[in-house]
């Protein structure tokens, strides 16, 4: 048994609420968020302009009857109006509820799938949408309601214990699960990340992450607000269509920090490899890799390619975060040695040490601490923990126990650092051996040139077969030549020594995903597992 990992002390918070943090920069005319729009000039929002826009939105919302304790849903793309509406709602003591915005918005604006359930569960008072929205069960406001010349003075109508926002996470496959984050937790989460990295107003960020997701909202918007540094923003769709734009913008802005899931680094390698010798990434201090399993192959390959652009080794840092903790939990330190552990033949990178104020413990099912190097469930504790799940006391009680959050993630602690090894109940057992789905999915994705979330691997119990059946479902944008199924089966046997019992080829978009692009594994099993 080992003691919990404990992060360093946290410096005093610069503000008690998010709206207070923005108001404190009300006279700051420096650029904050620059929204890139293709080849046209970026739309720039200064800190002062964001504060003014928030006050204008507060006026609109007050006129619509929004007050303290109300919930305000946001169906908006990355842009100034998202910022204004998000902070304007908070100024009135209302709670913003971001809804997923489509990666590529085509045709008339419609309520995204699952959003009606979110509106009902969170008892939303009004919804702010980018345009007219048909068949919405609550009143809708649009940006044209904002009057450019009118804004009242800032009013601090909320304290640090009030909700800052509700982040709907997709960890469950049925009822939506809304994470309620308090003002103090949100400020602490963003502040802890800037402290851990030593970010200052001299830093420059680049991101394409959506604001409706915690990685984009807390890791980009709120962290840059607390740190006081500018960020240049692409849309998610522009990155996915042209990954080289991300790399080119990093070089053009002399960015010092960026953050993305593992698949983004992998996609940039596969689709934008020729651009590396043409750009300069020597100014980049941190490229944070998190939100999904961090693969050693991706880390090594990206840094090798980036070396042609002046990227320093150790810039690409594995990190760990989750919505239930505001966001950040653990970060690998700059320039740290590669400290992988080998589990079932695979290399598992370290995601580092707890952020300031955080504690991490790996536990057995009965709550006892695991010994060093032994896998268990990761639990975390600290001032950034959620208040609970919106209108779901049963799920809250299951996740929060004696002040600790049981994350559902599996991991181990070795040499004072955390390694994430998978998710509870996702292990696949074949012939007595344990396999992590991510390993199988990565091998197949590389073979067929698919993103990691374009492959789903899981097991289903077949009593007639006397054990578990390994099922692999693969999305193909186009059907390759030859016997793809045989090639996949052979590569899995060759690389991992595992035999896939069933391989299904499906069209693009067939696999169920969360709003952030992660696979909904339980839905995958329900949709494809029962087929003979």
CATH topology of the domain at 18-29 and 47-158: Rossmann fold
Give me the secondary-structure category. alpha/beta
At CATH's second level, what is the architecture of the domain at 18-29 and 47-158?
A: 3-Layer(aba) Sandwich
Radius of gyration, CA atoms, in whole angstroms: 23 Å
**Oligomer category:** single chain
For the biggest sheet, the summary is: 15 strands, mixed
Low-confidence stretches: none
Q: Termini separation (Å)? A: 45 Å
Overall geometry comes to: globular
Name of the top-level CATH class of the domain at 18-29 and 47-158: Alpha Beta
Proportion of helical residues: 25-40%
Q: What features would you highlight for this structure?
A:
15-stranded mixed beta sheet, GMP Synthetase, Chain A, domain 3, alpha/beta, globular, Rossmann fold, 532 residues
Verbal overview:
The chain has a 15-stranded mixed sheet that branches. Strands 5-4-6-7 form a four-stranded parallel sheet, with helices on both faces. The protein has 14 helices and 29 strands. The mean pLDDT is 90. Among the domains are: 18-29 and 47-158, Rossmann fold, CATH 3.40.50; 428-528, ANL, C-terminal domain (GMP Synthetase, Chain A, domain 3, 2-Layer Sandwich). The radius of gyration is 23 Å and the shape is globular. α2 packs across α3 (80-91), α5 (183-197) crosses α6 and α12 (437-448) packs across α13 (484-495). The two termini are 45 Å apart. The longest helix has 17 residues, at 47-63. The chain has 532 residues and is an alpha/beta fold. The protein is 27% helix and 27% strand.
């Amino acid at each position: 048994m080992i003691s919990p990992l404990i992060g360093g002390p946290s410096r005093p918070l610069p503000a008690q609420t998010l709206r207070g943090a923005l108001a404190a920069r009300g006279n700051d005319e420096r650029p904050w968020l620059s929204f890139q729009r293709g080849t046209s000039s970026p739309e720039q929002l200064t800190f002062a302009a964001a504060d003014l826009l928030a006050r204008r939105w507060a006026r609109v919302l007050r006129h619509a009857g929004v007050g303290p304790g109300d919930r305000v849903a946001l169906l908006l793309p990355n842009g100034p109006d998202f910022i204004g509406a998000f902070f304007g709602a908070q100024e009135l003591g209302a709670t913003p509820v971001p809804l997923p915005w489509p990666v590529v918005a085509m045709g008339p604006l419609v309520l995204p799938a699952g959003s009606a359930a979110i509106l009902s569960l969170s008892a939303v008072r009004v919804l702010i949408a980018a345009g007219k929205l048909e068949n919405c069960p609550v009143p809708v406001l649009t940006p044209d309601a904002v009057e450019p010349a009118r804004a009242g003075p800032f009013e601090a109508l909320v304290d640090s214990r009030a909700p800052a926002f509700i982040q709907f996470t997709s960890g469950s496959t049925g009822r939506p699960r809304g994470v309620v984050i308090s003002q103090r937790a949100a400020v602490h989460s963003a502040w802890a990340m800037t402290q851990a990295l030593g970010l200052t107003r001299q830093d420059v960020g680049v991101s394409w992450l959506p604001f409706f997701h915690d990685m984009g909202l807390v890791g980009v918007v709120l962290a840059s607000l607390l740190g006081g540094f500018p960020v240049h923003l692409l849309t998610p769709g522009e990155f996915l269509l042209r990954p080289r734009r991300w790399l080119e913008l990093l070089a053009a802005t002399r960015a010092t920090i960026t953050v993305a899931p593992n698949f983004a680094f992998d996609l940039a390698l596969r689709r934008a490899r020729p651009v590396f010798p043409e750009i300069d990434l020597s100014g980049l201090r941190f490229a944070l890799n998190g939100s999904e399993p961090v693969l050693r192959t991706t880390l090594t390959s990206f840094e090798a390619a980036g070396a042609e652009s002046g990227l320093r080794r150790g810039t690409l840092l594995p990190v760990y975060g989750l919505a239930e903790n505001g966001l950040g939990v653990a970060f690998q330190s700059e320039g740290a040695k590669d400290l992988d552990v080998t589990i079932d033949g695979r290399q598992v990178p370290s995601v580092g040490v707890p952020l300031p104020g955080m504690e991490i413990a790996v536990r057995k099912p009965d709550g006892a601490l695991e010994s060093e190097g032994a896998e268990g469930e990761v639990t975390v504790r600290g001032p950034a923990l959620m208040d609970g799940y919106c209108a779901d006391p049963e799920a809250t009680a299951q996740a929060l126990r004696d002040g600790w959050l049981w994350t559902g993630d599996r991991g181990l602690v070795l040499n004072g650092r955390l390694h994430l090894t998978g998710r509870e109940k996702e292990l696949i057992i074949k012939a007595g051996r344990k396999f992590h789905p991510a390993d199988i999915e990565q091998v197949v994705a590389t073979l067929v040139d698919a993103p990691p979330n374009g492959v789903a691997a899981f097991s289903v119990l077949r009593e007639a077969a006397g054990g578990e059946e390994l099922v692999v479902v693969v999305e193909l944008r186009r059907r390759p030549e030859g016997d793809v199924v045989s090639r996949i089966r052979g590569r899995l046997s060759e690389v991992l020594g595992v035999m896939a019992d069933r391989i299904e080829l499906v069209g693009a978009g067939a696999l169920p995903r969360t709003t952030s692009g992660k696979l909904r594994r339980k839905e995958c099993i329900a949709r494809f597992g029962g087929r003979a």
